[in-house]
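Hypothesis: this fold can be encoded by more than one sequence.
Test: take the structure tokens below, design a sequence, compare later.
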């Protein structure tokens, strides 16, 4: 899991650009999971991928 490799902002530089789409999906899944437990709004965090 790519998201587990990121502990601070500079760690994203270690992720290969080809893996950014997978990382974005992992971030979306994380946000949905956390927001579904705590409540809140997540629409603006999901963004749009064309």
């Amino acid at each position: 899991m790519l998201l587990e490799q990121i502990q601070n902002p500079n760690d994203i530089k270690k992720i290969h650009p080809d893996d950014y789409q997978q990382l974005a999906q992992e971030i979306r899944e994380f946000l949905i999971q956390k927001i579904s437990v705590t409540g809140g709004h997540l629409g603006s965090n999901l963004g749009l991928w064309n």
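The mean pLDDT is 84. The helical segments are 20-38, 43-46.
Hypothesis status: open.
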